[in-house]
Write a structure and sequence with these properties.
single chain, alpha/beta, 6-stranded mixed β-sheet, 38% helix, Rossmann fold, elongated, 18% strand, 9 helices
């Protein structure tokens, strides 16, 4: 029998090779399957033009709704608006676009970043640098805001020279960090990274510069970047509830499709993050002990 219902959803993520996004997809897939829907997952490569093509492709496949993590490259607002105007429900997750009235699910970005930086402050760090992704993304701007709030709350003035904007390509970030860490002037005693790919670039720069963490520079990052028992030192991480983000976003999308949610105003769900404290942010005294002669104290990648 022919029907207007395909019982399919689409999800567009920037990179399935980043461990955060497969967890998001799994959560969304579980929610979809519980209601008898299939999920089509595609990868935008963080490219705005590729994202446009995928939105058109999913529209042509007659999906009933789309879960979207917007590309880091500037995304034209009309891309999303046209899909919504075509009658396809859209829920944005993790990266929330500016000036687009759509439902959204993400972590509490500024609070989560503040938690990570406050941890570094509590263990004795005062010159704390930050390495961000592209500030065209709202979540990156919010994480930078949380960093500044944590410093100001501790009576520490943010220094422009300690704020570095990168991209989401580890090799590029490593080059930026090598240049900054090798520059003259006081070296930071800690670095906060706002996402996983940026953290990988930072750690590579520390390794290449012969600097160890935590004994030379303490490190805290957003998002899990390693298998904990295969990585030395283990990295202190602000962990997003990736599976729950995907699950909740798919639930909202399904409820919109099925008419369970009637309100016209966009729904904004913001979930708390957790902090996993590991070796890379040991206290100052611990750092001195870790640098004992004969022990390898660098970063192994």
């Amino acid at each position: 029998m022919k029907t207007n219902k395909t019982r399919t959803q689409g999800i567009i993520v920037p990179a399935m090779t980043i461990s955060f996004f497969p967890q998001v997809i799994r959560g969304a897939e579980t929610a979809a399957r519980q209601r008898g829907y299939c999920l089509i997952a595609v990868n935008s490569d963080d490219n705005g033009e590729r994202q446009r093509e995928l939105l058109s492709l999913l529209h042509a496949q007659r999906v009933e709704g789309i879960l979207l993590v917007v590309a880091a490259a500037p995304t034209a607002i009309h891309q999303i608006s046209r899909i919504v105007e075509a009658g396809i429900r859209v829920v944005c997750l993790d990266r929330i676009p500016d000036r687009v009235p759509v439902d959204s699910v993400s972590v509490e970005d500024s609070k989560a970043a503040r938690m990570g930086v406050e941890h570094l402050i509590s263990r004795g760090s005062r010159r704390i640098a930050i390495v961000t992704g592209p500030l065209t993304l709202r979540n990156e701007r919010q994480r930078l805001l949380g960093y500044k709030q944590a410093l100001l709350g501790a009576g520490i003035g943010p220094e422009a020279g300690l704020i570095g904007q990168g991209n989401l390509r580890p090799d590029d970030v490593a080059a930026i960090c090598r240049e900054r860490l090798g520059a003259s002037g006081a070296r930071p005693d800690a670095v906060f990274s706002t996402n996983g790919p940026t953290a990988l670039g930072l750690l590579r720069a520390l390794r290449d510069g012969g600097l160890g963490t935590p004994q030379d520079i303490a490190v805290v990052t957003f998002d899990e970047i390693t298998v904990d028992d295969l990585f030395t030192p283990s990295i202190t991480t602000v962990v997003q509830p990736a599976y729950e983000i995907g699950f909740r976003a798919a639930e909202i999308l399904l409820q919109r499709i099925e008419g369970v949610i009637a309100q016209q105003e966009p729904i904004a769900v913001r979930l708390p993050a957790t902090l996993k404290i590991r070796e890379s942010s040991q206290e100052v005294e611990g750092r001195k002990a870790a640098a004992a002669p004969g022990l390898h104290a660098g970063v192994s990648i």
